[in-house]
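Subject: design request, 477 residues
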């Protein structure tokens, strides 16, 4: 192809790539071979995979999409079609391990002609006494290509669906038969304008084939409004009249919100992490948040965070395998790596499960030392204790406490702004313990305004014989 036909072909390829997301896998094959021209000059071309990865599909991240579109823009027209090799390479890519495995789609762009014209010759010319005789005109054997595609597609799982786009008025036979036999369709394109509408057969198939009343979760992506990394749960809106997709309803969640939700019930060295089906880490305490992300984030393989460079502990490999396969379970690991100490190891149990209707799996590590949950509360049997005092010492100087608890403030000998404890009230007669709220209760349940907090403190002082464990969450801030 050349001229406007070539421009249409490039526009189609770029249009398809632009609509992909990180959950899709993609690659592009440019199928053409070297040839001689009419006067015997050699033109060097080769069938090639455009992505930086030559042997498998690549995730349609911003970086990969940008790379592919730049390489498509840099393609120059020329060469003779080499469709047998091109389709062979395309099916090898589809059969590679790096892909979603949900469905296989090929978009085939051609002018449909069985020759490239007088100036493209598939053999060298020769000289006679009468002058130079050019080599034979390239003419393609469609039957060989059809047979090869049939054979390769029979070995592909799931089988590829082929959508053909014809950039000329004639030539429907080859791309038409290819598309119809492999559950696709063919469209003629006379220009590169308004391609979304002209390629409605392809986009209608994608929307109709991905219907899911339960919705789906996207891969993480950068929010264009500066919220950082987001994931979206989207549900298609399907017309009851036509059965077609007419819109999408979605809810966004930042990874920061997800991290807060996953980590707020942790204690001690207990920690959790979230990965996708490719084993890439979405959230892990060892990953530092980055506020300057400009394109798609790079996700670290979970084994780099949970295993050393030699792959130890080896038992964790089973956890990775189960998480990738969406399985649930638990596994005890004798020498698990501790989250807060890089080189320290201890026995721990990993509990894990796949998240429903998503590509994510969640796990948490529970060390043996954290199986006893410690929380703040007064002893059940207080008979051997004389009195206990509330640790918010300022409340004992309030007028109501002074009247109802006479002598207590003087007895405690409260000191303020000691050199060792600047800005604090302390009593040296009793030990004081400060517990961070998140270590024994959910702080989100105890957000109280200042007045409410003080009333709660006074009530606690006046009713010291009752359970006060949870109130530490609302009073210490």
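Subject: RE: design request

Done. Sequence follows.
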């Amino acid at each position: 192809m050349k001229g406007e036909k070539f421009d249409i072909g490039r526009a189609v390829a770029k249009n398809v790539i632009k609509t992909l997301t990180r959950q899709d896998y993609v690659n592009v094959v440019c199928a053409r071979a070297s040839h001689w021209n009419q006067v015997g000059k050699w033109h060097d071309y080769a069938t090639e995979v455009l992505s930086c990865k030559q042997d498998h599909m690549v995730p349609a991240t911003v970086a990969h999409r940008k790379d592919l579109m730049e390489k498509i823009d840099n393609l120059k027209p020329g060469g003779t079609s080499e469709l047998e090799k091109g389709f062979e390479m395309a099916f090898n890519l589809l059969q590679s391990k790096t892909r979603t495995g949900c469905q296989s789609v090929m978009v085939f762009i051609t002018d449909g002609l069985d020759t490239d014209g007088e100036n493209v010759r598939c053999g060298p010319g020769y000289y006679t006494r009468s002058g130079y005789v050019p080599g034979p005109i390239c003419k393609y054997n469609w039957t060989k290509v059809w047979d090869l595609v049939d054979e390769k597609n029979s070995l592909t799982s799931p089988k590829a669906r082929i959508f053909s786009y014809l950039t000329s008025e004639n030539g429907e036979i080859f791309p038409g038969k290819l598309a119809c036999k492999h559950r696709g369709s063919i469209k003629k394109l006379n220009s590169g304008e308004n391609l979304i509408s002209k390629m409605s057969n392809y986009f209608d198939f994608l929307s109709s084939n991905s219907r899911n009343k339960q919705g789906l979760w996207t891969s993480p992506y950068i929010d264009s409004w500066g919220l950082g990394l987001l994931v979206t749960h989207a549900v298609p809106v399907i017309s009851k009249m036509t059965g077609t997709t007419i819109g999408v309803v979605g809810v966004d969640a930042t990874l920061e919100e997800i991290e807060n939700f996953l980590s707020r019930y942790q204690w001690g060295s207990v920690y959790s992490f979230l990965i996708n089906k490719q084993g890439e880490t979405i959230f892990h305490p060892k990953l530092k948040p980055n506020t300057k992300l400009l394109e798609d984030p790079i996700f670290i393989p979970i084994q780099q965070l949970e295993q050393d460079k030699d792959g130890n502990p080896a038992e964790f490999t089973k956890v990775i395998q189960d998480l990738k396969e969406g399985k649930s379970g638990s596994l005890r690991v004798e020498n698990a790596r501790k989250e807060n100490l890089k080189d320290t190891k201890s026995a721990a149990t990993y509990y894990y499960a796949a998240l429903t209707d998503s590509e994510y799996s969640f796990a948490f590590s529970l060390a043996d030392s954290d199986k006893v949950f410690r929380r703040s509360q007064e002893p059940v049997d207080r008979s051997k204790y004389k009195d206990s005092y509330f640790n918010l010492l300022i409340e004992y100087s309030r007028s109501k406490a002074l009247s109802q608890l006479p002598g207590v403030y003087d007895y405690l000998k409260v000191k303020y702004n000691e050199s060792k404890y600047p800005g604090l009230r302390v009593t040296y007669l009793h030990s004081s313990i400060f517990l961070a709220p998140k270590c024994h209760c959910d702080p989100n349940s105890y957000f109280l305004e200042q007045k409410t907090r003080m009333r709660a403190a006074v009530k606690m002082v006046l009713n010291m014989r009752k359970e006060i464990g949870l109130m530490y969450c609302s009073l210490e801030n």
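The two ends are 71 Å apart (CA to CA).
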